[in-house]
Amino acid sequence: MKIITDWHPDGGLGHFTKELGLAGWEDSKLARNLPFEDWWDIQVEVLDYTENYVVTLHDAEGVSVGGVVLIPAYDAQVGKALSVWHQFLRTEHRGSAKLWREVLRASEDCARHAGLRFIIWTHRDEKSGRVFLKHKEV
Fold first, then answer.
1. What is the edge-to-edge ordering of all strands in the sheet holding 64-75?
2. pLDDT (tens digit, 9 = 90+) per residue, 55-75?
3. What is the largest CA-CA distance in the chain?
4. Of the candidates 113, 102, 105, which has an alpha carbon nearest to the alpha carbon of residue 2?
5. What is the DSSP letter of 33?
6. 108 with 138: CB under 8 angstroms?
7. pTM across the whole model
8. What separation in angstroms does the CA of 44 have from each of 17, 97, 100?
9. What is the pLDDT of residues 14-36, one digit of tens each?
């Protein structure tokens, strides 16, 4: 697997393709509250104009199989941080802690590049419908 990190100071989606978005949407009970096209339009609208980092995993053929989208945000606990807007991995590539460690390392590099000390991401419990915030100091 190859990791590609894109920084979009003026917004943009980079390697975060509509096909990859569909895989994430299909995997999220919460996201599926909206029809895919409506959900995708929101992603494009927000990310096209918001500074962001996109860390994507690519297979041997160069196809994006997962990754994270990170945006600068403010958190009530730690102040300015890099927030994970999306995180997912195609089903056939799940179960590899090594892949996610690599993505996390690349995300930490993004936080350092942005001059931020924390990464914040959500963890959703699909059964209960609850969403938790997790913080990682870099």
1. 2-8, 52-58, 64-75, 79-89, 118-125, 130-137
2. 988 888 988 888 888 999 999
3. 42
4. 102
5. G
6. yes
7. 0.80
8. 10, 29, 25
9. 767 788 788 878 878 888 999 99
Comparing C-alpha atoms, which of 7, 36, 42 is closest to residue 23? 36
Q: By three-state DSSP, how is residue 83 classified?
A: strand
CA–CA dist 55, 69 (Å, integer): 6
Q: Which two tokens stand for residue 28?
A: 């999220």
Could you tell me the CA-to-CA distances from 40 to 17, 49, 82 in Å, in that order?
10, 15, 22
- On the CB side of 46, CA atoms within 13 Å amount to 13
CA quadruple 8, 13, 95, 99: dihedral positive or negative? negative
Amino acid 24 reads G
